[in-house]
């Protein structure tokens, strides 16, 4: 089953049913003074409604829990003030980055899971600092990457395409208790506070063990979830090129775009950023690295942000008893 364009851009005006559109107003009225500035717009409320299958009461409960979590973790402060100086070393042991956009205008996020080493990662950072970094980059995705992709595409962007490269995945290195606890924490944050951001997920170079397990658990997932996921072996390239232009796909994955495993996308394009006051402010504060100059910016102090679905992938590959539930919840939350 392939998603239609209306399903890809499900949040746009005209793609949401009248009944579900009416629930946006109902949710807004239910939340009242509990609405979070910056997360009180139509599209944000749609995300929580869809994550809870358009049940207003459940969506309100989820939203209120998110608002409380943001206050407790001072999320607004993390985006502006948290400095993750160890990022170059973190990326060495956990390669993850955004690279351009797919044919729909969605940012493309890539993780090289087979090269990930959580034990080494925790020697160069701590769980607390990595968690803060993860929250910060999730906010940067919402506040910087999506607005820039929206400006570049000429329509509202809400989701991203994800590639998880499993080449080199090792049971002895990737399926330990340390990894499990680390990833459960990250997955919980995503599921509860940043729902409905997944557009498409490609798992490539998957080992036979994973593909065998996938053939079992996919029977428990609904068609909407399955339509977002492609589980592929080494012959993945045609599937990727059907969604991502070759000139936007890194050479390491068979495309034509040079890639150094750091972020690259419209949020670094001065001509795009200059059309959005919020992005101009972020660039001036050094939160965006521009590929060309923008008056008032300080790219030398830029922060580079990216995201994570590693927890879902490794838990599924490990074959934990609750793996199908973990995947269904994580996909629904993204």
From TrEMBL:
<dbReference type="InterPro" id="IPR036865">
    <property type="entry name" value="CRAL-TRIO_dom_sf"/>
</dbReference>
<comment type="similarity">
    <text>Belongs to the SFH family.</text>
</comment>
<dbReference type="GO" id="GO:0000139">
    <property type="term" value="C:Golgi membrane"/>
</dbReference>
<dbReference type="InterPro" id="IPR011074">
    <property type="entry name" value="CRAL/TRIO_N_dom"/>
</dbReference>
<dbReference type="InterPro" id="IPR001251">
    <property type="entry name" value="CRAL-TRIO_dom"/>
</dbReference>
<dbReference type="Pfam" id="PF00650">
    <property type="entry name" value="CRAL_TRIO"/>
</dbReference>
<dbReference type="GO" id="GO:0005886">
    <property type="term" value="C:plasma membrane"/>
</dbReference>
<dbReference type="InterPro" id="IPR036273">
    <property type="entry name" value="CRAL/TRIO_N_dom_sf"/>
</dbReference>
<dbReference type="InterPro" id="IPR051026">
    <property type="entry name" value="PI/PC_transfer"/>
</dbReference>
<protein>
    <recommendedName>
        <fullName>CRAL-TRIO domain-containing protein</fullName>
    </recommendedName>
</protein>
<dbReference type="Pfam" id="PF03765">
    <property type="entry name" value="CRAL_TRIO_N"/>
</dbReference>
<feature type="domain" description="CRAL-TRIO">
    <location>
        <begin position="86"/>
        <end position="261"/>
    </location>
</feature>
């Amino acid at each position: 089953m392939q998603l239609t364009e209306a399903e890809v851009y499900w949040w746009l005006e005209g793609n949401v049913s009248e009944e579900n559109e009416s629930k946006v107003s109902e949710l807004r009225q239910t939340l009242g003074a509990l609405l979070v500035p910056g997360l009180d717009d139509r599209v944000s409320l749609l995300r929580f409604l869809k994550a809870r299958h358009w049940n207003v009461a459940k969506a309100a409960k989820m939203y209120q829990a998110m608002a409380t979590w943001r206050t407790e973790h001072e999320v607004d402060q993390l985006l502006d003030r948290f400095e993750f100086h160890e990022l170059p070393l973190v990326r060495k042991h956990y390669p993850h980055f955004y690279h351009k956009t797919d044919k729909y205008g969605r940012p493309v996020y890539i993780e090289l899971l087979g090269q990930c080493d959580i034990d080494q990662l925790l020697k160069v950072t701590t769980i607390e600092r990595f968690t803060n970094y993860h929250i910060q980059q999730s906010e940067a995705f919402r506040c910087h990457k999506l607005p820039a992709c929206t400006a570049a595409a000429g329509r509202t962007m809400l989701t991203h395409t994800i590639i998880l490269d499993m080449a080199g995945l090792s049971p002895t290195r990737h399926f330990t208790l340390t990894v499990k606890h680390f990833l459960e924490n990250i997955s919980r944050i995503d599921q509860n506070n940043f729902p409905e951001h997944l557009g498409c997920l490609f798992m490539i170079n998957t080992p036979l063990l994973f593909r065998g397990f996938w053939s079992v658990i996919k029977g428990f997932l609904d068609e909407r979830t399955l339509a977002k996921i492609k589980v592929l072996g080494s012959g993945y390239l045609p599937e990727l090129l059907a969604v991502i232009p070759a000139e936007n796909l890194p050479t390491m994955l068979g495309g034509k775009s040079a890639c150094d495993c750091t972020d690259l996308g419209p949020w670094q394009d001065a001509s795009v950023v200059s059309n959005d006051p919020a992005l101009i402010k972020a660039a001036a504060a050094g939160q965006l690295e521009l590929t060309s100059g923008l008056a008032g910016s300080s790219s030398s102090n830029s922060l580079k942000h990216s995201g994570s679905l590693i927890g879902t992938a490794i838990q599924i590959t490990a074959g934990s008893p609750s793996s199908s539930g973990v995947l269904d919840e994580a996909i629904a939350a993204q």
